[in-house]
Amino acid sequence: MNEERYAHRIRQTLNFGLKDIPPAASRRLEAARHLALARQKQPEPQLAAATAGILSLRTSAYAPHAKQFLAIVALLVGMWISFYWHSVQYITELEDVDSALLTDDLPPDAFLDSDFFEWLKDDSLEE
After folding, report:
1. What are the extents of the domains in the chain?
2. How far is CA 6 from CA 1, 15, 33, 41, in A?
3. For the segment 50-71, what is each residue's pLDDT rounded down to a tens digit?
């Protein structure tokens, strides 16, 4: 049963017994009703400033969508950081290989020789 239907049934039941209440009790009930309405929690006004928009996410109707958007942005930033970190590691490994080749006893002219590349190809096929 939804809330509106439940509230309607309660109101009908209370209205049915209204004529049996004495006038003094009716005035006290009315005063108590006004007091309760005055103490009722008022909705928070929406903040108009652009910088305060994030603070009002929990009271906004778009809060679930904003939270999903922020989660997606956080995921994308995390993926980008991971990609960047792996690429830096890959470049560091290439630098280590280049350093090892450059500190080797082989002269740099050997790398320019086409016979050297043929020897490397033949050597790699045998393994």
Report:
1. 1-38, 61-127
2. 7, 14, 19, 22
3. 445 555 555 556 667 888 899 9
| C-alpha torsion 55→59→61→67, nearest 10 | 50
Angstrom distance (rounded) from CA 59 to CA 45: 9
Instruction: Say if residues 46 and 59 touch (Cβ distance below 8 Å).
Output: yes
Distance CA 4, CA 10 (A): 10
Structure token digits, residue 78? 């995390």
As a whole number of angstroms, the distance between CA 15 and CA 23 comes to: 15
Amino acid, single-letter form, for residue 106:
L
